[in-house]
Amino acid sequence: MNSMFQKRFLKFCCYLLLTSSMLSAQNPLVTHIYTADPTARVFDGKLYIYPSHDAIPKNEEDAPRFYMPDYHMFSLENGSTWKDYGVILDQNEVPWGKKNANGMWAPDCIKNGDLYYYYFPAPPKDESSFRRIGVGVSKSPIGPFVWEKNYIQGIEGIDPGLLLDDDGKTYLFYASEKRLKGVKLKANMKEIDSEPIQIQGIPKGYVEGPFPFKHHGVYYLTFAHVFPNEGYTIGYATSKTPLGPYIYCGKIMDNIDNGTNHHSVVKYNDRWILFYHWWDISGFNKLRSMRADYLEFKKDGSIKKVEPTMRGIGHPKIGDTIQIDRYNEIYNAKTTFVGGNEPKGWMVCDTKMMSHVKFNGVDFEKGQAKLIKARVASGQRKGAFEIRLNNSKGKLIATFPVQYTGGWNSWQTIETNLLEQVKGVQDIVVVFVSEWGATKIVNLNWLLLK
Ligand code: FUB
Predict the structure, then answer these.
(1) What are the chain's domains?
(2) pLDDT at 9
(3) Measuring from atom 8 of ligand 1, which residue has the nearest CA?
């Protein structure tokens, strides 16, 4: 194993151990396993994600490659927690799949009528192609799925992306040798209804990850697009007909580092969301983590470029941890991993006089919260931190005097009363106060309304 991989691998193993049950609405969405290629879908008002799973390679020879043996799936619970349903398909359960090939790449799931159809690519045991695309059917979005005995005949490629049109016709898009292909499916959703075509109008540099959707009567095809001097970006094209020709319209997300990006776009609770992945946690681009940020359309139907944030989507409510290190804005402080007696996550550290951290969209609900808790560590006892609304000079709603907790990684939960009733969704700002010149006031992991 080369030493750079070994180091990252070890860092990952430690991190995994430390975060064995952490699920949240902030980015990354989950940290107890690595997840990539998130296809989000809303079924009957509930948000689901069907991602692929970057597992830890078991052998040295597998180390630098994707190691993807199965699929998990997730649903959003209470607006801020991602529930993991565990393995919904293992590679060795695919009737037509090559055993232990670790090539379960990006899937999709779509509802047609009362049934849910889960599409996935896998290496076939007949070795007829690099990847074939299979399908399973279920009465429920969370399975169990009944897997078809054979792959879909007449297509070969990766990254299935499904579009169910208003007229009931279904189209399957996929990537085949860096060409974006599309085909109409039969009503049974398991067979193609015409010859696949290469979608026209997709720019040079197209690689993979087609995700189709329709908005105000316009067909949008979004995809991974590589520019020679930039790397992976997420781009999009539009058309008046599902199978094109399409016109390239630009980028949805710039390159966020070297390696892949893969996404989906979904409307949930009246807001559009871009789901995508990054590997900023592991530091290794084959161990990725799914993320989400809001996406907006301009009046002319074009898409505003999405900036990746740590804050992500969702509104922590009363009783949820507000992971303050996943901030919208930070001033004169830093974040790093926790340690000591704290098993998981990150903290805000290096807090100085008038440092602040802003976290948008905390749901105070109907104003029933009476107090606020904070998870803190401090090696000194001077100063305080304040919780304010909207900005660093906004209304003061709580003050925590700093206490000595036994050291900078000795964690304690402290609490204080809210100074007044606060209702609805609010942006909060934590402001650190002490003597001018103080270089470390307190380390802060999370807040929680009670
Ligand atoms: O996750 C494996 C492959 O990497 C996907 O199929 C591609 O889209 C890229 O994300």
Answers:
(1) 3-295 (2.115.10.20), 321-449 (2.60.120.260)
(2) 53
(3) 209
108 Cβ inside 6 Å of ligand 1: no
Supply the pLDDT for residue 314.
85
Residue 206 near residue 174, CB atoms below 8 Å: no
- Sheet of 329-331, strands arranged across: 329-331, 356-363, 425-433, 384-389, 396-401
**Does the beta carbon of 246 sit less than 6 angstroms from any atom of ligand 1?**
no
> 226 Cβ partners below 8 Å, 6+ apart?
205, 207, 232, 233
- Whole-angstrom distance, CA of residue 114 vs CA of residue 42: 14
pLDDT score recorded for residue 186: 98
pLDDT for 53 equals 98
Distance CA 170, CA 183 (A): 9
- 3-state class (DSSP) for residue 450: coil
Residues of the chain falling short of pLDDT 70: 1-25
Alpha-carbon span 191 to 152, nearest angstrom:
6
- Tokens standing for residue 333: 């402080």
Q: Contact, 154 vs 190, CB < 8 A?
A: no
